[in-house]
Amino acid sequence: MARINAVSFHENPSIEAICRAVRKAGFDSLELSRPPFYFKLTTSGTRRRFADWAANLGLTLYGFDCWVEVDPYTRFDETLADFRRAVDWAAELNLGLLISHDPWAAVNGGRGPADCQRTCVELFRQVADLCLDRQLRLVFEPHPDTLSMNNTWATDFIDALGAGRPPGSVGILYDCCHYGVGQEEDYVNEIRLLATRIGHVHFADGDARTYALHLPLGDGCLNLEAIVAALKAVGFSGTLTNDLFHYPLLEDGASHNAQRIREVEQALGLANP
After folding, report:
1. C-alpha distances out from residue 60 to 49, 68, 102, 142, 175, Å
2. Is 108 contained in some domain?
């Protein structure tokens, strides 16, 4: 099974066109996104109808990149309410996984990392409880401008959230492109440090310079073979999605990647849901 994320295609307002393009490219699973899926599938009836339509098209659905605007400092209750709605939406579609991020640097402002972590743990413990109640895993995607790109901060954060919860219910999303930019000299070794905390992977190439430019496999400078080897060495057994966010030739890139993603899954021994 090969999965790609819908957020790569977020500029296309048609959920039908996105799904058909993904299938034509050779993918048979889709990670859903806020635009346009969350914004358009606004009732239980439309969500059920979409799930049936996607299944008839040959697409399984797994994962929701919920993209809630996280501000636990000045909008704690509003942020939690946004997550509650996102969790309900993902659970109704039986997506199994909720993807989020810790606050952007601009939201953190002048707060120190320890203060940020305390407040983020307070918020995301409640989000993790919501996910656990609805049988969703929760993963955090570090970006170059989030504190979670620092491994010490990230491991302390994930360990605090995971305490007392089933193993694997809370984890890190390793995005090759983001780590290639945020940890240009050490992005492979980061996998060994994060180890079993990695629950999901966005697999893509990158140029190690441009923020969020996810390239087709082989078009960038990342050592993808070393990434796969490191994931295998730490016993990664989570889930994996191809990412082409910000790549300008999406359908061509997806067609290029589909078989390669299957080969990566096979190398890692994954059986993606």
Report:
1. 14, 24, 28, 26, 22
2. yes
